[in-house]
């Protein structure tokens, strides 16, 4: 079973559009064997909840339970909203909001402790040479998972998202994504246990669309895709779901 995860980012800005996109996505997702997970912006979660009986995620969360934290959304607030997944460590938050590995680590630990599943994003800035996976990927994983108990590792999906491939139309090659997946599994295997490394789900993200989605999901060792802009286009994303099946 493959994962098709929609990161709507901030592309959708009205309830009307959110409902329409959600409805179309659900209709295709119900007919598919893939695990389709929608991660809308927070204000659209109630819209989705009314109709959605499949997996739902959010794009960020705060690590404290409650208190004087202006502007933050806590895990506790999400508990009764059918939210199962949290995207953490996305490069847009690392780059535009200054999120450090230390912050990502606090969020990862809090989300896992509260019973959520984490989609942890890692990836390098500059385009690399063929078959060379930058060590930053391992450094991010080691820092972001610092102190995470091994019992929680099966609740993590790692999304390999090279920053140069995000929103640029320049996707990585499936072979490189596969090499990155091996490297990620080895890193987690070294940190915990080979079995946990082998078992972890690794996704690819970065300019995935209907033209290249099958190249990634059909490639050995890639468990699915994390899709940005194409997931916010109704026809494009439903087409992708149908293609993956
Ligand atoms: P694009 O699919 O728009 O390149 O974005 C990828 C991404 O950042 C998903 O989290």
Description:
- With 245 residues, the chain is of the alpha/beta class.
- The protein has a single domain (3-244), classed as Aldolase class I (TIM Barrel).
- It has helices spanning 15-30, 45-51, 75-78, 91-96, 101-113, 136-144, 174-191, 194-199, 213-217, 234-244; strands spanning 3-7, 35-39, 56-58, 83-88, 117-122, 156-160, 201-205, 224-227.
- It has an eight-stranded parallel sheet.
- The protein is globular.
- The model has no long low-confidence stretch (mean pLDDT 95).
- The structure holds 1,3-dihydroxyacetonephosphate.
- 1,3-dihydroxyacetonephosphate binds at residues 7, 90, 161, 166-167, 205-208, 226-230.
Please provide the ordered H/E string of secondary-structure elements.
EHEHEHEHHEHEHHEHEH
Provide the low-confidence segments as ranges: none
Number of helices: 10
Ends apart, CA distance between termini:
10 Å
Structural classification: alpha/beta
What characteristic shape results from the CA principal axes?
A: globular
Task: Look at the structure and give the CATH class.
Answer: Alpha Beta
